[in-house]
């Protein structure tokens, strides 16, 4: 579980699938009103207070983004119930006791695959490996000093996705950035066929 403070009243929490499985939670459980999901939210808020001093008293707007290769990104905002809901999300009032947390939860899911790379040379190496599997895919962004490779589900053959993710995980790391954040705050470097372009312009080191 990774917690980052985005502002005075906003934090971002990144949960890997390992974080969820350790607590006996499946991805689809986040859509359920069940005690172990309540326990997870309580644990997140406790850890947020300990690590970044985020006081979760009062009304909270909670946005949960499920990403296929990364896990869950949870954005928590204090005192805002009137934030615009993003298209496609289910919204419900969390029934936690008022004296604990009062939350409105918005759930979103995305099939976009996003992986970040600290070093462009490592990204070049990953692109050359990926090129043998799927060459005409991907867009490349620069965000917070990292290179982010983005792949949409319609670009991928379903049977090749596990192998693709295995390569990405070997060279890069799952990122807590959502597609919407990348589009709003990232810089688009290569809009189409990023893997092919990288391989065409840059040679492997080894």
Written description of the protein model:
This protein has 206 residues and is an alpha+beta fold. The chain folds into 2 domains: 2-109, no CATH class; 113-201, 2-Layer Sandwich (Alpha-Beta Plaits), CATH 3.30.70.1950. Helices cover 30% and strands 31% of the residues. It has helices spanning 17-22, 35-52, 120-131, 161-171, 179-185, 194-201, and strands spanning 2-7, 10-15, 59-67, 71-78, 90-93, 102-109, 113-117, 139-143, 146-151, 173-174, 187-190. The protein has a 6-stranded mixed β-sheet. Strands 10-7-9-8-11 form a 5-stranded antiparallel β-sheet, with helices on both faces. Strand 5 and strand 6 form a beta hairpin. Helix 3 (120-131) crosses helix 6. The two termini are 35 Å apart. Residues 81-100 have low confidence and may be disordered. It holds the Pfam family MecA. This is Adapter protein MecA 2.
Low-confidence stretches: 81-100
Mean pLDDT: 81
Sketch the major β-sheet: 6 strands, mixed
- SS strand fraction: 25-35%
Distance N to C terminus = 35 Å
SSE class? alpha+beta
| Overall 3D form | elongated
Tell me the number of strands.
11
Count of separate DSSP helical elements = 6
Number of domain units:
2
Question: What order do the strands of the largest sheet run in, or round the barrel if closed?
Answer: 1-2-4-3-6-5
**Helix content range:** 25-40%
The Cα radius of gyration reads 18 Å
């Amino acid at each position: 579980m990774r917690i980052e403070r985005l502002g005075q009243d906003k934090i971002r929490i990144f949960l890997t699938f390992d974080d969820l499985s350790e607590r006996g939670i499946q991805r689809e459980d986040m859509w359920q009103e069940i005690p172990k999901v309540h326990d997870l939210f309580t644990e997140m808020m406790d850890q947020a207070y300990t690590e970044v001093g985020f006081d979760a008293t009062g009304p909270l707007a909670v946005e949960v983004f499920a990403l296929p290769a990364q896990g869950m990104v949870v954005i928590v905002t204090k005192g805002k119930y009137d934030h615009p809901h993003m298209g496609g999300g289910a919204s419900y009032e969390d029934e936690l006791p008022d004296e604990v947390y009062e939350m409105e939860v918005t759930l979103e899911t995305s099939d976009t695959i996003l992986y970040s790379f600290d070093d462009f040379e490592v990204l070049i190496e990953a692109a050359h490996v990926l090129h043998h599997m799927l060459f005409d895919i991907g867009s490349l962004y620069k965000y917070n000093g990292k290179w982010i490779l983005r792949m949409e589900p319609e670009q991928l053959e379903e049977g090749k996705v596990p192998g693709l993710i295995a390569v990405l995980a070997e060279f890069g790391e799952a990122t807590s950035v959502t597609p919407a954040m990348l589009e709003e705050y990232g810089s688009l470097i290569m809009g189409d066929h990023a893997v092919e372009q990288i391989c065409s312009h840059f040679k492997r080191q080894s």
